[in-house]
């Protein structure tokens, strides 16, 4: 759907699909992001495209490393993100609190406790707070 909307210059409608997907518990994959980036391109939505790129770069890749237990790749990605974040001011930061916690979880799953402590110390120093999660349950009346 995102690609179809992209072809017809309906970038905002394609981006709304991302919200609908996330609201339904469906995680975007590489195909989804490709369609959404194409939609931003065809519609001239530069800022939205950059946001998606950073979201895809940080959240999808780091979460995928965690999901698949790829500690080596997660370590590489996490360290690069931390280096980028350190080089930028907090106003320009592309690294979100969930990235720090995902990296910490990757290290914890590999029992790399010194690395867990290093990331958690970084979280504490920077005053980063965990975002509260939420769940929703839909019921249908029959």
From TrEMBL:
<dbReference type="Pfam" id="PF20431">
    <property type="entry name" value="E_motif"/>
</dbReference>
<protein>
    <submittedName>
        <fullName>Pentatricopeptide repeat-containing protein</fullName>
    </submittedName>
</protein>
<dbReference type="InterPro" id="IPR046960">
    <property type="entry name" value="PPR_At4g14850-like_plant"/>
</dbReference>
<dbReference type="InterPro" id="IPR011990">
    <property type="entry name" value="TPR-like_helical_dom_sf"/>
</dbReference>
<dbReference type="InterPro" id="IPR002885">
    <property type="entry name" value="PPR_rpt"/>
</dbReference>
<dbReference type="GO" id="GO:0003723">
    <property type="term" value="F:RNA binding"/>
</dbReference>
<feature type="repeat" description="PPR">
    <location>
        <begin position="29"/>
        <end position="63"/>
    </location>
</feature>
<dbReference type="InterPro" id="IPR046848">
    <property type="entry name" value="E_motif"/>
</dbReference>
<keyword id="KW-0677">Repeat</keyword>
<dbReference type="GO" id="GO:0009451">
    <property type="term" value="P:RNA modification"/>
</dbReference>
<dbReference type="Pfam" id="PF13041">
    <property type="entry name" value="PPR_2"/>
</dbReference>
């Amino acid at each position: 759907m995102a690609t179809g909307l992209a072809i017809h210059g309906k970038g905002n409608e394609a981006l709304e699909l991302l919200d609908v997907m996330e609201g339904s518990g469906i995680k975007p994959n590489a195909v989804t992001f490709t369609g959404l980036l194409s939609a931003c391109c065809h519609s001239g939505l530069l800022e939205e495209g950059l946001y998606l790129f950073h979201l895809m770069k940080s959240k999808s890749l780091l979460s995928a490393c965690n999901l698949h237990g790829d500690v080596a790749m997660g370590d590489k990605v996490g360290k690069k993100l931390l280096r980028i974040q350190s080089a930028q001011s907090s106003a320009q930061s592309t690294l979100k609190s969930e990235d720090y916690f995902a990296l910490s979880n990757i290290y914890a799953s590999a029992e790399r406790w010194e690395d867990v402590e290093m990331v958690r110390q970084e979280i504490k120093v920077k005053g980063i707070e965990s975002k509260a999660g939420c769940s929703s349950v839909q019921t249908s009346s029959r």
